[in-house]
Design goal:
Blueprint lengths: L1 H8 L7 E6 L5 E6 L5 H12 L10 H8 L1
Antiparallel strand pairs: 1-2
Length: about 70
């Protein structure tokens, strides 16, 4: 979790929402919201998160909206 937060903090951004919990089986799930970022930065950050060891899934709000459409 700290590696993910570091990617945000080094860009001087602060999440408007952050929630973390340990799920069944010990997996750590967390959700956060970054307000005011464009789709290019969102895609870049998502790719950076995916490269972090032990990160299994990254879903962005735009990607989730496209799946529902």
């Amino acid at each position: 979790m700290s590696r993910c937060l570091d990617l945000i903090a080094k860009r001087d951004m602060v999440p408007s929402y952050w929630h973390a919990e340990v799920a069944a089986g010990g997996a750590l799930n967390f959700e956060f919201h970054l307000d005011g970022i464009d789709s290019q930065l969102e895609s870049y950050l998502a790719e950076c998160f995916r490269r972090i060891i032990n990160v299994e899934t990254v879903v962005t709000s735009r990607a989730a909206a496209q799946r529902q459409a």
